[in-house]
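During the reporting period the student researcher (J.K.) took over the structure-prediction task from the postdoctoral fellow and processed the backlog of single-chain submissions. One of the processed entries is reproduced below for the supervisory committee.
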Amino acid sequence: TSPDDIEGMYGSEGILTARGGMTSHAAVVARGWGRPCICGCTSVAVDEENGEMTVTLEDGGQRVFREGDFVSLNGNTGEVLAGEQLVAPPAIAGDLKTFMDIVDEVRTIDVLANADTPEDAQEARKNGANGIGLCRTEHMFFQPERISKVRQLVLGDDEQQKSALEELLVYQRSDFEGIFKEMDGNPVTIRLLDPPLHEFLPSLEDDEILSDLATQLGSTVEQLREEIKAAEEGLRGCRLGITKPAVVEMQARAVIEAALNAIDAGVDAQADIMVPLVGKVEEFRYQAALIRSVAASVFDESGKACDFKVGTMIEIPRAALTSHLIAEEAEFFSFGSNDLTQMTFGYSRDDVGTFLPTYLENGVLLDDPFVTIDTDGVGQLIKMTVENGRAFNPSLKIGVCGEHGGDPRSVKFFSNEAGLSYVSCSPFRVPIARLAAAQAAVEQD
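J.K. obtained the following structure tokens:
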């Protein structure tokens, strides 16, 4: 899959792909949403035009499934099962709850969750998360009425862009309020918009969506196709925030207003605003000043104030190498270990499946570095960042919010060797991370 498929993925109960692997786009997104996902099922052939899927069975025979047929997925074992299976939601109760209470007494590192909606936050809290370590604001835009406003923001004229931002502000503020209420008394780390805006645009072949969007913008389908082709790629993270400050202003306002509203409702809202993809301290300084300026305006308008922090993701090697400078400005660090691994190795998660099996088979790699942290390379950048950051600010809160936050072996490294304050992972992997953190603490003793 690619970001173009995000609407369909969001509306699905499960995801099955013929290509990819554990660290491909579909797997990473599905894990965060708690959707069962099987990637790289080479026995599957999809005929999109006829709405059919052909599965080659172990005996060489084939079975055809048509649109409307039930297929069940076991994301743990990789099994694809014909028909609808009986399932039950997992629950932490009884003896398991007693055991997990003991686990929490032993572990020395906090376990937070990556959650993007109030519903995700509720699931995270139920699974024992100590807060939200990553709220990906772009994941709040997948509903049809919201993504149409993002598209209006990208392709509309000045007035249409302003109108889109005003409506997106309402959506974001409401979602943030819900998350603060679910996480009452626990920190909520909200990452500003990270992916490039062109990823929200429709496919050039999607005539129905293009027609609706053209009507919405008072344009034509052909004009839209040309504008989509010309959309700027690579304008993401803080680069997007610096070149299009109105987006950051909207998001910062939504966070601060939501926190004030939640506090008025009796909630202990703890907002941490995170700037993504920083490579130079000047980038962070620019964005942090804008965020604090927006917060000051909201405080003046409302006659109320609240505490909040502004920090950054460390996901570019240059940020790790200059962490001593960034620590003078940022109030917390969070490692985006997925991107940090990509940029340190020079691999791409989207095509790593083409050579990773051969690398593992021949001992070039002992582990998939997108699943278990590479302690010799990426891990050294992490340890250096922690050391340099805390040399300036000994109480600097530092965590990790990449996929590695739910991997037991990685959790042991983050806890015992890197000295992180917390790990953050999918709400559904929180119990595993809690147990791994306790096991790490026992081993260290």
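The committee noted the following: The two ends are 44 Å apart (CA to CA).
J.K. will present the remaining backlog at the next meeting.
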